[in-house]
Amino acid sequence: MIDTPTMKAPIIGALAPHGPEAAQVATLTHVMTIGGALILLLVCALTAVALFGPSAWRTALATRATVRWGGFVFPIVTLAGLLGWSLWLMRGSERAAAAPAGLTISVVGEQWWWRLGYRDAQGRPFAEANEIVVPVGVDVDLLLESADVIHSVWLPSLGGKLDMIPGRANRLRLRADRPGVYRGQCAEYCGGSHARMGFELIALAPDEFAAWRAAAHAPRPERASETARRGRDVFAAAGCGACHTVRGTQAQGRVGPDLSRLGARRMLAAASLPNAHDARARFVQRSQDVKPQSLMPPFAFLDETQLSDLAAYLGGLR
Amino acid sequence: MRRARAIAALRACARPILLTLAGLALALGLGGAAAVWSGLIDIGARRGHFPFVETILEIAMRQSARRHASQIAAPDLTRPGMIELGAAHFHGACGLCHGTPESGPNPVMVGMLPAPPDLARRDLGWSAEELFWIVRNGIKYTGMPGWPSAREDDVWPVVAFLRALPKMDAARYRRLALGELAGDPRAPAPAPAGDRAPDAMDSCARCHGETAPPQSALTPRLHGQSEAMLLEALRGYSSGARESGIMRAAVAGMNDADLRALARHYARGAPRAAHPQIDAAAAERGRRLAHEGDPARRIPACLGCHGPARHALIPGLEAQSAAYLEARLANWRAGGNDRTPTARLMAPIARRLDAQDARAAAAYFASAAPAPRGVAP
Fold first, then answer.
1. Structural contact between residues B308 and B373, judged by C-beta atoms closer than 8 angstroms
2. What is the ipTM of this complex?
């Protein structure tokens, strides 16, 4: 369901708002930029008049009244007006945030990935990682925490940018008005692979989201292909389950990202690589080349067949 | 007035003095070059040094070792297994030149200049730190080689042994150095390097044991480990990628067929029985680390990789000696040994353990019953 053609290219950019928060930020940006440009033009024009204009105009500009109105009254009124307007805008969004959200997702920043905590319709918790799935048109609260250093969630097209501070939970209210894939990024330098700490937010139609959420605890079908079965054995033998969870199997590690539905994600390694067979194999084998200093060790001792089988198994986790 | 005259006088004689000095320096340089070039200097070892040269070299060596060792602090050299491991290494790698309490100095090597000191009969008065520095770095112009690995912690057992050596009789030496082969009259002469597989097996048995467990607690138990893992380790020692001065010396001169034969031999052996549990509290803590890890500190469960479903290149840890496991983890924690494919996996995890974790995990695995590698469930 996530591979629909309309969703191929992720949406990114603060000037392309796809939600109310981002729309406010975009409006503020537009008004400030255009207004600032107009004032700059006016000042340039007045300067030109003062230098090269007819002497009658120059005399008119040199009066006390010009200084009084243009130098004092105009900036005070303009700046006070802008301040009042932006405060009013922000007050609006705070009032909205006080209303209960339709969905709360726990997002924990870790060097260098995102640990996500959901609850299904029955209130049972389940973990995901690096791909935030939300329903369209619903106010969503991201409960932001950090497991190590300060990170920052930034979703330019949806307006969110808020720090994750160790020992503190911040709440970020978002709403996606249209289905799509929205690219996000850690916006606070957090160490070696900071630049590789991205994520995608996927906004689904409400019924698609409900199905996605309900599938979290659905029983895991037995692996069909022989390759994937061998890959499952490699997964167990190489000890992947010591750090990663695959729901419904022996793998219950909680150090690294939950892999229960890795195969359904668009991207790998916190939006560092497209989620393709070869990329999965390469990341397992040379993780430190892709994400230097991350906790994921390189499994350089697996041979090509083992890596390929493992990539097939991981790709089948949905 | 007087000052000006003095300066003028100095100027007048400065020139001839400088010219004389320059001439002397030139003559010395040319003379030296001529002496070297002419071949008149006798560099033969039989001839020996002039006595004063020997005295100067001796002083330089003493002072250098003393100065460089001043920054080194010796660990506890009385820990169990230290002297045994050092003795076994000395027998294979050092005894050829230095002689042993059993064999005495090697008459061929005595012809070196300087003659390798007979460490068994003469206490040269080196401190433990000075011995460490010398064994680690070797000594220029003497034929004493530096340690054949970047790893440092396996130098200390040799130091522990060297400190005990001057008071050691031949019988005790034989017991320490030959282990279970001590009673065997065909026990190898002190030159296992270069031997081929069957002899090498004897050399291995001196440390790793064949009928009995290893006599040093710092030596790993190899019987029953996977052949692929053993071969990978031996090849790593042979290439130097896996760091250990002791093992580098032990596999020196072996070819790949020898290494394969050794790996096969040990893989076929029956695993040793577990050690009796000594520290129940540590073992319990270790059991939790082994089964659950410590997710809050990003430590995965040991058995996640080392369990019965383990990959053929991953060792089983049960019944291994606690001192060995702790030393291996300490080596990783100190930043060493992280270049082989499997060490690149283990080293970063080991560095997240503290000394207590390492002791706990070692205590648990030492007293756990051997778990053979099975097929993944």
1. yes
2. 0.81
